[in-house]
Amino acid sequence: MKIAVMKETHEGEKRVPLIPPTVDKLVKLGAEIVIESGLGLSCLFQDAEYEKAGAKINLSREDMLKSADIVLRLRKPPMEEIELMKKGCIHISYLDPFNETELVDKMAEAGISSVSLEMLPRTTLAQKMDVLSSQANLGGYVSVILAAEQLDKVFPMMTTPAGTIKPARVFIIGVGVAGLQAIATARRLGARVEAFDTRPVVEEQVKSLGAKFVKIDLGETGQTKDGYAKELTPEQVQLQKEGMAKACSLADIVITTAQLFGRPAPRIVDHVMIAQMQPGSVIIDMAVETGGNVEGSEVDKVVEIEGVKVVGLGNLPGRVAQTSSQMYSANLGNFVDHFWDKEKKIFNLNLEDEIISGCLITHNNKIVNEMYKSIMNK
Questions:
Q1: Cα-based torsion angle of the residue sequence 23, 5, 59, 53 in order, rounded to the nearest 10 degrees
Q2: Residue 233: its pLDDT value, please?
Q3: DSSP per residue over 32-59, as a string?
Q4: 219 plus 284 within the same structural domain
Q5: Are residues 171 and 306 in the same domain?
Q6: In terms of domains, do 170 and 262 share one?
Q7: Measured distance CA(177)–CA(362) in Å, rounded
Q8: Domain check: are 39 and 90 in the same one?
Q9: Domain at 286, CATH number
Q10: How far is 18 from 70, CA to CA, in rounded Å?
Q11: Is residue 238 within 8 Å of residue 273, measured between CB atoms?
Q12: Which pLDDT does position 366 carry in this prediction?
């Protein structure tokens, strides 16, 4: 099978979908890998390194799309490239299906079997393919580094001849993969860290990293079967804001990570809460690209509200592009490897498999994903 790996065209995107070691792994499975010339340059991987790993280099993007059995990308495909792919082609990438309904419809119409990597089931078997977790992990790390750059204080406690410097106080809202990495990174830098999540079950994880878990009685909460926090009622949201206001007012840095799968991010830090914070404090809104957790945050901007810096920079994993490409590439390689028929040397799109049925959106000119159909009334 011919696998085409496409260069990213999204402005400012430095991550790449496949790096040479993963190419080597897939070539050894028996796959024919064709990469677009210059694929890895943003991460300092030369075409020659891909050729050494067994890939062929192609200068024609159109030719690659027309001849590929499988297309691998990082981001969703440009609309105009869907019609270039041959019917029955398997397309694997981030797809953002709930916000890209026109794109999904067009892929179904074109007969493309589209895999949305965001939809991978949160199971033990699928962990090695879980791009959301690997990228969120790095996003949590970067959020703390950005906060340290923006804050006019040091993180650790220091005892000096000029006196003792108190540690910075960091408050992290949302203790998923990103939040846990943010806690760990802030603690490594010596900060005093507190964290809150609507799921009481994560308290032990917070404490194991040396942080304090902030308890707010919201009544009945919990998590979905996939480990995501359940959406709160308006009354619970108000209780949460009231409970978090004090922690925010004491913090030098607030990092918000709360996102809802397939829906806009919840607004959890409002103008009133920001006004109670100390001047010079910093808020990092990790959910800014999906609507934002923080009132007034703007995508790819740092704005000042009531003397507080609100950082809304997008694509945080892309700020450590080499590492995030390494992890995404490994996830992608593991996905292909898991469904590769080593005897026939083909990718086995097994529609009965739990992982495939969870992340396959379109197939045979139809939308086939049950979750997508139920939410979008398709």
A1: 0
A2: 78
A3: EEEEETTTTGGGT--HHHHHHTTPEEES
A4: yes
A5: yes
A6: yes
A7: 29
A8: yes
A9: 3.40.50.720
A10: 13
A11: no
A12: 96
pLDDT at 166: 96
Is 2 strand, coil or helix? strand
Which pTM does this prediction carry? 0.92
pLDDT averaged over consecutive 10-residue blocks of the chain (378 residues)?
96 97 98 97 98 97 97 97 96 95 97 97 94 97 98 96 96 96 98 93 95 85 59 77 90 94 88 96 97 97 98 97 98 98 95 96 97 86
Instruction: Please spell the DSSP secondary structure of 227-246, one letter per residue.
Output: SPBPPPPHHHHHHHHHHHHH
SS3 of 169, please?
A: strand
Give the span between the Cα atoms of 343 and 193, in whole angstroms.
52
Q: Which residues are catalytic?
A: 122, 127, 130, 133, 228
- Verify that 333 and 289 share a domain, yes or no: no
The boundaries of the domain holding residue 183 are 136-314
- Does residue 155 contact residue 190 with C-beta atoms inside 8 Å? yes
Residue type, 194: E
Q: For position 232, what pLDDT does the model report?
A: 73
